[in-house]
Amino acid sequence: MFVDVAKIFVKSGDGGNGAISFRREKYVPFGGPDGGDGGDGGDVVIKVDSNMRTLLDFKYKKKYEAERGENGGKSNMYGKDGNDLIIKVPAGTVIRDANTNKIIADLVEDEQSVVVAKGGRGGRGNAKFATPTRQAPDFAEPGMPGEEKWINLELKLIADVGLIGFPNVGKSTILSMTTGAKPKIANYHFTTLTPNLGVVDLPGINSFVMADIPGLIEGAHEGTGLGIDFLRHIERTRLLIHVIDVSGIEGRDPIEDFEKINEELKLYSEKLASKPQIVAANKTDLGNEENYEKLKAEMDKRNIKIFKISAAANQGLKELMLYAAQMLQTLPVEKEEIDDIYVAEEKRFTYDIERADDGAFVISGSFVDRLLQSVNIYDSESLKYFHKVLEKRGVIQQLRDMGIEEGDIVRMNDFEFEFIE
Fold first, then answer.
1. Could you read off the pLDDT of 295-316 as tens digits, one per residue?
2. Residue 85 has what pLDDT?
3. Is the model's pLDDT at 184 over the cut of 50?
4. The 3-state secondary structure of the chain, one letter per residue
5. Residues comprising the binding site for Mg(2+)?
6. Are the folds of 1-155 and 352-418 the same?
7. Residues of the binding site for GTP
8. What pLDDT was estimated at residue 183?
9. pLDDT bucket at 156, cuts 50 / 70 / 90
10. 8: which strand partners?
C-alpha cells in the first residue's frame, strides 16, 4: 500500500526532578545538601531512511513519545538523560506543524534529520541552591515538561523526470522499458494507482531517476480521478515528459489532451506548469500519421521538442532518454522553497493575575504550578527563594501596578499568603 500523507502526535520526554537530600555520613554530623539534578528528557527526532518508500508505518501507529529523564538522587547523583526517539521516514518527506501548517523541515537526503520536539530540561537538585547564607535549602526544581504537538508528514517523491499524461497513454510501459522498474501494465485506465520510480542508466549519459505519475484527467486539481493525490509528486522534478497517445484509438484529440493536462498543472500550481517539457508521441506503431503530424506542427510552434515513439515496441525510447539526460545537464537541482518556515518557540512558563470576587489577587498558570512544585512552603529558606523568584519574574511589581495593598490576600492554587511590603 502506498501512503504519502500522515498525521502523528509526538511528545518529547519530560525532564527528571531534582532531588532534595542532605549528607548523612557517620563522621559528617552537619552535612550539607547533596541532591543531584534530574536528567534531561529525550528528543523526538525524525530521520531519513533510504530503505523506506512510503509513510505506511504511520497509518497504524499515531503516537510517539520519547523517554523521560530520570530523577536526581542523593550523594549528588545526576539522573540519567532520557533516550532520544528516532522516527524514520522516506527521503522527500515534508514535515509541517499541524496547527499552523508551517514547515518544520524538508528532508531530502539520506540520514538527514531534524528535532521536532525538544526534551525537557532536568530540574536542579537542592545542592545547586546552596549559598553562604542559604546552607540547607529544602527545595529543588521539578523537571521541565517535554514538548508535544501534532505534525503532518507529506511525501513528495524525489525524481529528476516525471512522466505525465492521461491514463492508459503508455507511461508505465516507458518506465518499464527504460529502467529496472516493473510497474503493473494493462490496457485499461488507472492501471497505475501509485507512483513508480526507476533509474534510467544508459551508456554515455549520467543516470537519472524517473517517476511514472498516475494518470491525470480533467478536474484532477479538484480531486477528480487519482491526480490530486499524486500531483505533489512531480513538484520536485526538474523535467516533465508529457506522454500523448496519437493513435486515436480512444477517439481523443492529441492537442486537446496536451492542453487539458497543462491546464490541470496550472490550476494546481503555476510552478508545475512552468517546468520544461518534452512531448513523447506514443503508440505511433498503431498508425494515424495525421495525428502525429498535427501534434508535431503544434509543438514546433511552441518550441517544444517532440519524439515519435512506440513504448510497446521499444522504438524511439533511447533517443528520448538521451535528450532528457542532456536537458537535465542544463537544469539546476531545485531546492524546496520555504516561505513560511516553522520556528520553534522557547519553552516558557506563563502566568495571569486576576482580582477575585472576595478581593484576593489570584495568580494562575504554568509558572505557578512549577514554582509551587519546587518549594517547600513550610521552610523559611524555601519561602525566601519563593519570594525572590516572584520578584525576579516581575510578579510583585505587577501586583503593585494592580493596586495591591499591605495585608491583601494573594492566592496561588491552594496556597494563600498576605502581601507585606
1. 999 999 999 999 999 988 989 9
2. 97
3. no
4. CCCCEEEEEEECCCCCCCCCCECCCCCCCCCCECCCCCCCCCCEEEEECCCCCCCCHHHHCCEEECCCCCCCCCCCCCCCCCCCEEEEECCCEEEEECCCCCEEEEECCCCCEEEEECCCCCCCCHHHHCCCCCCCCCCCCCCCCCCEEEEEEEECCCCCEEEECCCCCCHHHHHHHHCCCCCCCCCCCCCCCCCEEEEECCCCCCCEEEEECCCCCCCHHHCCCCHHHHHHHHCCCCEEEEEEECCCCCCCCHHHHHHHHHHHHHHHCHHHHCCCEEEEEECHHHCCHHHHHHHHHHHHHCCCCEEECECCCCECHHHHHHHHHHHHHHCCCCCCCCCCECCCCCCCCCCEEEECCCCCEEEECHHHHHHHHHCCCCCHHHHHHHHHHHHHCCHHHHHHHCCCCCCCEEEECCEEEECCC
5. 172, 192
6. no
7. 165-172, 190-194, 212-215, 282-285, 310-312
8. 42
9. confident
10. 151
What is the spatial distance between Cα 116 and Cα 246, in angstroms, rounded to a whole number? 49
Fold of 161-330: Rossmann fold (3.40.50)
Domain ranges for the chain? 1-155, 161-330, 352-418
Identify the CATH class of 352-418: alpha beta
Percent residues over pLDDT 90 in the chain = 38
For the purposes of burial, counting CB atoms within 10 Å of the CB of 311, is it exposed (0-12), middle (13-18) or buried (19 or more)? buried
Per-residue model confidence (pLDDT) at position 254: 92
**Among candidate residues 240, 223, 324, 315, the one with its CA nearest the CA of residue 277:** 240
Say whether pLDDT at 1 is over 70.
Answer: no
Annotated binding-site ranges: 165-172, 190-194, 212-215, 282-285, 310-312
> pLDDT of 250-301, one tens digit each?
778 899 999 988 888 888 778 888 899 999 999 988 877 899 999 999 999 9
Dihedral sign, Cα of residue 383, residue 388, residue 393, residue 394: positive
Q: Once rounded to an integer, what is the mean pLDDT over residues 345-355? A: 78
Confidence at residue 212, expressed as pLDDT on a 0 to 100 scale? 83
Which residue would you say has higher pLDDT here, 337 or 24? 24
Domain 1-155 fold is: Spo0b-associated Gtp-binding Protein; Chain: A, (2.70.210)
Nearest Cα neighbor of 264 from 218, 226, 212, 232 is 218
